[in-house]
Structure prediction request, 92 residues.
Amino acid sequence: MNHRAANFRATMRTFAVAAVTTAILMGTAQAQQNSTDPLQLQYEQQRKEQMRVEQEYNATMKRTQRGTADPNAKKDPWATVRTTDEPAKTKR
Prediction:
């Protein structure tokens, strides 16, 4: 029986070493598979930044065009500063 127990231990030791080795190799393979390329991360970050800038630009354009019915109409930036008694002075 002693020979049988030694054979069983050797088999189990081999199986345990194989299982640990497989687990380690699977872990490193998965780590390599999930990592993304730094260049790809940079491109993704640039794309997100461009989208954010575009959204801000569109929001600003909507805000500035909301109050104007005629975009070519002349505007008086001092209209709120002048009193109603004072007419706008023009160059002659």
